[in-house]
Amino acid sequence: MSKIAPTTKNILIVAGDPSGDVYGANLIKELKARDPELIITSIGGTRMKSQSSHFIYNLVSVGAVGFSEPFKRFFLWFKLLQLIRYYMDEKRPACLITIDFYGLNHQILGMAMHRKIPAFYYIPPQVWASRPKRAESIARLTKRIFCIYPFEKEIYEKLNAEHDFVGHPIIDIIDEYKEGNLRPQEDMPAWKIGILPGSRKFEIKKHLPIFTEAFCKIKSVYPNSKGYIFAVAEVPDKMILDLISETNPDCKNDIEIVRETNYNLRSQMHLALTCSGTATLENALLGIPMIVAYKMNFLNYAIARKLITIKHISLVNILLKKNLVKELVQKKASAENISQEAFTILSNPQKFAVMQKELLTIRNMLGKKGVASRVAESILEYLK
């Protein structure tokens, strides 16, 4: 790690997944815009690296999430914690900012508290879905928690934790919906089908074959349709193409890999086949009807069934408190089930319109634009 002169303007930021990398990069921009003398050291992904003064490790590329994955990364975790411990002892950062990714961040927060380094949690982990005891730990280890969902306020109020509902950072990225997603009027509709298998490699391996097979079934009924796989930077084209070639080679020429940051093409989709996660919120803000599916290995699923306390897996249904979008988990997440649900949406203009209208109401639940700006202001005000 390169030398950094000791200064109260050092800030350490840690994120561990692609969405955290995006939101972390935007926060770094806002912090530096307010104080160009800040020295930001980060652990995250390529987006945070491009905005940081110093970069320790590309944790996003590792993709260690779930219940069993972190154990497989024990030696990497150990090495990273050593690097962070050295950084904290040597540089004495003005503060630590953690973004989601509880498993590793919890340990880093403990190290910061031991050294009396103030810590902030931006995008706290989803304790409302499982393991609520984690909220107590977060409250104890941080100076302030920046909540992104309105219902998180109640959790931290009960714990007397310093917190703010700042809004979801996705609304800083996706512009307000302006035009309806027009349904094709031809005799043989040319549906644009978005395929979002996830951002982590294990998710893609689980979901992409199922989603592409479901697309093939849709195309057999609507032959003018085209599929679009929306991929994050960390996943190479070769991995995607190899998976399609192995499982659904007949549809390979009808599917395009898309890598965009502005959501222009995504906003044109008529339907999305989506892995559970942030992508469901993105689709909602874009007014795209969707089907949500999720598969995991047996051990992770067995643990999840015991820990998860909420009825829904998609953020859309959680926020709306009802089953608006179809959720298919484990064995139910099959190409047959996904394609059948797709047909019920695509063949029913009224169902299509109702779903789109309700999805668009979610924006009002996620706060106002300027999320990263408000978080940066709050942190810098504290540091004064």
The portion of residues forming beta strands comes to: 15-25%
Number of strands: 13
Strands ordered across the widest β-sheet: 3-2-1-4-5-6-7
Sheet having the most strands: 7 strands, parallel
Class of secondary structure makeup: alpha/beta
Q: What gross morphology would you assign?
A: globular
Provide the CATH superfamily of the largest domain: Glycogen Phosphorylase B
The average pLDDT value, as a whole number, equals 88
The helix/strand order is EHEHEHHEHEHEHEHEHEHEEHEHHEHHH
Count of helical stretches: 16
What's the architecture of the largest domain, going by CATH?
Answer: 3-Layer(aba) Sandwich
Q: What is the fold-level CATH name, i.e. the topology of the largest domain?
A: Rossmann fold
Query: Which segments are poorly predicted (pLDDT under 50) over 5 or more consecutive residues?
Result: none
The rounded distance between the terminal residues' Cα atoms is: 28 Å
Number of domains: 2
CATH uppermost class of the largest domain: Alpha Beta
- Tell me the radius of gyration: 21 Å
The percentage helix is 40-55%
